[in-house]
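Changelog note: in this version the structure field was regenerated for every chain. One regenerated record is shown below for reference.
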Amino acid sequence: MSVTPRPGHTRWSQGSVAELFSGRDNSLGLLRLVLASAVVLSHARILGFGQREFGHHFTGGQTDMGKVSVIGFFVLSGILVTRSGNRLPVGRFLWHRALRLLPGLWVCLLVTACAVAPFLYWRAHGSLSGFWEHESGPLDYLRNNVAIRVHQWGISGVLETAQQKGLAHNHSFDGALWSLEYEVLCYLGVALLALAGARAGGLVRARRAILAVAVALGCYLVDEALDNPLVSSIDVQAGAAVAVVGGWVVKWVCYLGFAFVIGMLIEVYKERIPVSAPLAVLSAVVMAATLHYGWFFVLGVPAFAYLLLWLAIRLPKPLRKVGSTSDYSYGIYIYGFVVEQSVAALGGARWGFAAYLGLSAAGTLAAAALSWHLVERPAMRWKDLGRSGLPAIPRQHRAAGVEPTRAPATSVRQQSTDAVAAGR
């Protein structure tokens, strides 16, 4: 049976992103789980065995699986955080972002400093003598890292001791946290653009400014790619001069910011972007070619962004249920590094890669599930605080006839969608 394209559609396009990319009916939950799991998988080689992460050699040193996954997170956050910033007042937008990011992070820091680190110290030394009083102790770890930017990576020399024994290959307890401050910087950029476009109709009216930011960041990337098509995006060579402004590494701001802004452009120009299988195939080819031959961060990142978008829209419907009510991706991201370091320090790598990865994955999933059910989801019930002075009423209470006097609370499924918009 032939299908006649609707007006404005072509045979190679089934519609625009605005028409087909629903805030609820998509596979974003699955994609975020895949990206988070890819970070854990990539880190397993370097943390457990001191080897290069997956993809390093294929990309000619440009990047690896873990960093490509971080790029993907920034693209998706760019789309969804822009959507959130366009529909919410700036104050409430920032409140929602803080609720999604900070409670989970703070509990992760607390668990790492006051449970994981002392256990590993005790296993290594037979007692906790000197642990709490150490010059880089657990309380210092909490104080130095509570404001998102990480100023202290180790705790009481625990992982340094493991390195001396040949068990660990990195002294950081949670190296994955490095990207969070750059995501927060992107959130602040969205808030500023929302303020600038408030009188003109929101972020959609500010899209020329967003396009200008994308061009500026793209010019930086092009300049680096002209100098070296295989330039590494995120790695900073030891001893090399690094440009830092306000504590942010300029190179990281530009590379991660470009991915985020590409996501923003997808959202504000969504009515002009076709959803096309041929374009998705072309994007996959461009992504693979640029990963191997160079220019990934100029040409491959936009291609990757379109491919993620197409997959979110076009993956089979049963897959759209993954992560729709329980979003473990942030927990996997913030706990994966801690669990892998712990397994390594306990000697888990001696049993081989498969066993090490299996133990790490199981521990990470358990930690992520606890984080979501005990910390992250309860925190999101306070999204509407200020409208009535009360947190959102759980759905089971509303079903029993208890109704709020404020505006209706969002459903659990919509809460999960908003959670996705917060990034990791």
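Spot check on this record: The two ends are 43 Å apart (CA to CA). The longest strand covers residues 244-245.
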